[in-house]
Each structure stands twice: as structure tokens, then as C-alpha cells.
Amino acid sequence: MELLVASGIGLVAAAGIYLLLRGRTFPVVLGLTLLSYAVNVFIFAMGGLAVGQPPVVTAGGAGYADPLPQALVLTAIVIGFATTGFVIELSLRARDETGTDDVDGRRPEEERGA
Amino acid sequence: MTHLAVLPVLIPACAGVLMLLAGADRIRTHRLIALVAALAQLAVATLLVRGAAGGEITVYALGEWPAPFGIVLVIDRLAALMLLLAALVALPVIRYASNGWDTHGKHFHALLQFQLMGLSGAFATGDLFNLFVFFEILLIASYTLLLHGLGAERLKAGIHYVVLNLAASALFLVGVSLIYNATGTLNMADIALRVAGLGAHEAALAKSGAMILLVVFGMKAAIVPLHLWLPATYAAATAPVAALFAIMTKVGVYAIVRVHGTMFGAEAGHAALVAEPWLLPAALVTALAGMLGALAAHSLSRMIAWLTVSSVGTILAGVGLFSSEGLAASLYYLVHSTLIVAALFLLAEVVAAQRGAGADRLQPAPPVAQPALLGLLLLLGAVSVTGAPPLSGFIGKLMILESARQSASAAWIWGVLLVTSLLGVIGMARAGSILFWQVQPDAQPSVAPGMSWKLYAPPLFLFGVGITMVVFASPVKRYADAAAAQLADRGAYAAIVLGSPRGLDRSARPLGEARP
Q: pLDDT 10s per residue in chain A (114 long)?
């Protein structure tokens, strides 16, 4: 399971970083979203991988899933949701104002000339 | 239990919400609430500094959950000093913005209060994940403040700034969770205790987490090579926002001091001084690159933005020594540079407004209407920011040089800091002579609207605090020395934050054996 989770996080993060480095706002937003997904699963994994365990410590000392990363992930998801919403609105506004979705505000013809 | 410690977070939060309730159009109400909140913030911060000066660490357990299980606010000397600094910058910025900038968009004052809430929380919190949350609060407010006034230039800088910071936030989470995995706690005092007892294997995880956090904080602080976003962003922001942002880079510096100076300091066992090989060289390159950027800048606001980068490098050179003397000198310089940079950003706009079409570009333009007054003020700022005698920059730089005397890299520090001072003098002299002397001879001074004391008072206030720091350099330095000594004393800090031993074996991870 470690291999599956680790390579899954790696794959999603790699895809996110690739998209983040694109020159247009839409792939950049998608990249940020993918990156935050990868990070969320990573936080989860940092509490130790446990399957079918309650997030409660029982008196018997049986296995448990660490509840703290779950709380952290919840916070991170909420914040990530808000910031993604903001960056989408910002991209739309910039597209509106500059007439292009290029992250540097360059128009296509300028790019061809460069 | 005194509730004073939580007020720096609550006052701006309540003020911001009150403004939102009052409605977007009631600008006079907003200004009044903002002024009252800023004065209250200043009073509370002063009380906290007075309380902390004696060496007492105030721990405020939110919801009465004891540390390390709940989140605590911890006000020690450093936190109180940073809170006071934030309040000292916020007050003139609010007054300056009330001259008209706050009507260029909606909710300026409310957003500014939310940013102050984030700043205060980041300075006060004693929990690493809570630091992330407050970082996000201050960043979200800063995104919108940066865009205040809109325009293509701001939107372009805004997209870069927002995307970079979101990527940095993802890294922040990775770093925090790595440290959590290694230590099993998020409370800063608890981490500091546990990191020392880690084995080599787990210390490697904690170290990689600490280095990832160094990248995150380095981005906020604008350390080379993570500084490229800053000049364009600060130059694009409106003057009051840029002045407020002068303290944003210092949040990064503050976090580096907390995490790498204390938690991963000299006593952290296998993970001790993990940032040492990187911080000092990066700081010196930053100081130099910032000054070179200032020399090459083509407008006054961009030049001041580069000077901000350089000042961060100078501060971190002292932090990078990882000694109490270096840290104390850096704290003095940090307070000085925040005040002066904020004043310069405000002043730059007054100059730009009087130059008519020339704005603040460094090229011949119509003369300013008040060359003597503006020239003198800019000279005051230039002398301070470049570290020439007799103002606060000189004293701060001297303290850093003095503390570096014993260091193995003393020659590098002395060389770089003195060369940056020289470059700064050249750059400011060039800028000043172009702005005030290379005027278009036939052009008449364009009388700018609103040339009144309302515009001059805020930068004068900031300069005044800077000069007070010269007059009272000795008590300020004593306070900084004590703050640095307090940061070095991890044992006492942990004992106060975590309370008296509760029968827990603190060397072992709680219930670690039961982990899957």
C-alpha cells in the first residue's frame, strides 16, 4: 500500500507541477488544484497509513488512525477551496482586462513576434 | 487569566466585520473604525511589550485546551515586538489611505484589518499549523489589497503573486506534515523539545521538513533566488498597500527565526542548525542583489522594492550567524528597515504625484512643487535605508557588523554589507539628483491635488519612530538582546508553554507504540 500511495502522490504532484509551469491561466489553476490534492493525501499519509482503524485511542491499546492529520487535511481543503475560487475569479478578471489568458498578459501576436 | 494576548487578533477581526456590516459605501464610518482599531491595536501592543519586557512569557490557551493538545498563543519578547511593529506601520498606512486611496475600490479598510489579523496571529501563535492558517489569512487579504485599484499592471503582478504564494502554501503543508510525522506534535515548544531527542533516521525527515519550510519562508521574505516576484508586485501595488507590505517580508524573517533559530537551533540534536550552511550565503547574495537591482531600477517605487529585498538580506545575515548577538542586531535592523521602507513607499507616491506626467520614473520631468521639503525627507529616508550615519540604519548595520566580528565568515559579511551601503548611497544619490535636479527647464511645477499635511504626516510619523530608535537605541538594543536570549533558552520557553510536567514521559511520543 505504501508504494501505491507514494507513487500516486508523486504522479499527481508531478502532473500538477507540469501544469503549473504552463503559460496560460487555465492549466495553471488546474495545476494548483492537482498539487493541493497531492499535498492533502501527503498530509494524510504523514499520520501513518491505517486501514479500517477508528480515529480513537481505545483502552485496549489496539491500532488507531491518527486523527490529527484528518483535521489538518480538512482545514487545508477548506483553505484550498477558497483560494482556488479566488484564483479562478482573478484569472477571469485578467482575461477580461488584458484580452488574453497568458500569465504575463502577452497577446498571441506578441508571442509570435518574440 | 488575562485576555490581553488574544486582543491583537480579535480587534482587527471585529473591526473588519463591523466595516462589512456597515456596508461598502459608508467610507467615513470605515475610516473612523479603522482609526479606532489601529489606536487600540497600538495600545494593546504597547501593553504586551511592557509585559514581555520583564521576561514574562504569556501563554493563552485558546478554548482552555492545554498545550500541546490545543492551540496556544504565546507572547514572548519577540512576538510582542513584532506586534508593536505591525501596529506602528498600520496606523500611518490607514491615515495615508484615508486621503483618498481607500475610495478606489471597495472594502479597503476591512481588507487591511483582515491582513492585520493574519499578521498578528502569525506573530502570536505557538503552533506550527496555526501559523499556516494565519499565513493564509494574511495572504488572502494581501491578494485583494494588491489588486486594490485594479488595472492591467496590477492584475498581471497579482496573478504571479497569487500563484507563487499558493504553490508556496502547498510546500508549507508538506514541510509541516513532515515535521509532524517525525515529532508527532505541532506545538512549537513541543517540537523544539522533541527534535532534540530524535534518532538519525527520524531527524532526517524533520530536517527535510525544516528545509522545505526554509524555502517557503524564504519566498515570503524574498531571499535570492526566491525574490523575483517582489519588485514587480510592490511597484504595482498602491502606495499604502506597498507600505503595509513592508512588514510582509518580515513575517518570513520572523518565521525563519522561530523555526530555524529556535526549533532547529543549536540544541536540536541530529537536526541542529540545519539551515546554517544555506542561510548566511543566501542572505549575503540577497543583500547584494537587492542593491544592484536598486541601482538598475527605472522608477522610484521599484527602487524602494529592491531596497526591501536588500534589507531582508542584511537582516538575515545577522540571523544566519546563529548567535544571540547576531539575532539581537538583526531584530533592531528589522524594526528600522520596516519603518523606513514603509515611509519611503508613501513618500515615493507624494513625489510621483507632484511630478505630474513624469510620475516616479527616473527621468527628467516637470519639477516638484515642494523640492526642499520632499528632497529633505527623501534624503532622510536615503540616509536611513543605506545605513549612513547618524540614523537608525547606521546603528543597525553597525550592530550586525559588530556581532559578526567573531564569525568565521566575518570578512564576507563585512565586505558585502559595506559594499551594499556604498551601492545604496550611489543609487539613492542618482535617484535624488534625477528627481529633483534634472527637471525640464521650461515646465512649470504641476500643482498636485491634496498637497497637505495629511499626506506628509504618515511618512513623518514613520521617520519619527525611526529617529526615536536612534535616540533610545540603548533601551531598544537591550530589549532586542533580551529577546534573543529568551529565544535561545528553549527549556524555559517549553516549560512555560507546556506547563509543569503532567506525568507524561516527554521524551517518548505519546502512544507511539500503538501507532500502526
A: 889 999 999 999 999 999 999 989 999 999 999 999 999 999 999 888 888 888 887 777 677 888 899 999 999 999 999 999 999 999 998 888 888 888 887 776 655 544
* A23–chain B nearest CA distance, Å: 11
C-alpha cell at B191: 517540537
Low-confidence ranges of chain B (pLDDT < 50): 501-516
Cα(A46)–Cα(B383) distance, rounded to whole angstroms? 50
For chain B, what percent of residues have pLDDT higher than 90?
68
Whole-angstrom Cα distance, residue B44 to residue B80?
10
Residues of B in contact with A97 (CB under 8 A): 150-152, 155
* The pLDDT value given to residue B445: 65
Give the closest-approach CA distance of A109 to chain B in angstroms.
18
Residue of B65, B69, B166 to mutate when probing chain A, most A C-beta within 10 A: B166
**Residues in Cβ contact with B318 at an 8 Å cutoff, skipping those fewer than 6 apart:** B326, B327, B329, B330, B333, B399, B400, B403, B404
In a mutational test of the B interface, the residue from A83, A93, A98 whose CB has the highest number of chain B CBs within 10 Å is A83
Q: Nearest-CA residue of chain A relative to B510? A: A57
Q: Residue B50, class by beta-carbon neighbours within 10 Å (0-12 exposed, 13-18 middle, 19+ buried)? A: exposed
Using alpha carbons, select from B251, B33, B32 the residue that is nearest to residue B137.
B251
pLDDT of res. A111: 54
Beta-bridge mates of residue B327 = none
Q: What is the pTM of this model?
A: 0.92
Q: What is residue B365's predicted lDDT score, i.e. its pLDDT?
A: 80
Which positions in chain A touch B151 (Cβ < 8 Å)? 97
Contact criterion met (CB < 8 Å) for A46 and B158? no
Candidates 1.10.287, 1.25.10, 3.40.50, 3.30.1300; CATH matching A2-51+65-101: 1.10.287
C-beta atoms of A87 and B152 within 8 A: no
Residue-level pLDDT at B357: 73
Q: In angstroms, rounded to a whole number, what is the distance separating the alpha carbons of residues B180 and B206?
A: 8
Question: Which candidate, B106, B95, B170, B183, places its Cα nearest to that of B139?
Answer: B170
Task: Please tell me the distance from the alpha carbon of residue B33 to that of residue B40, in angstroms, as a whole number.
Answer: 10
Task: Say whether the ipTM exceeds 0.90.
Answer: yes
Interface of B with A (CB under 8 A): 129, 133, 136, 140, 143, 147, 150-152, 155-156, 158-160, 162-163, 166-167, 169-170, 173-174, 176-178, 180-181, 186, 511, 513-516
- All three cell numbers of B37, joined, read 482599531
B178 to chain A: which residues are within 8 Å by CB? 46
pLDDT at B502: 44
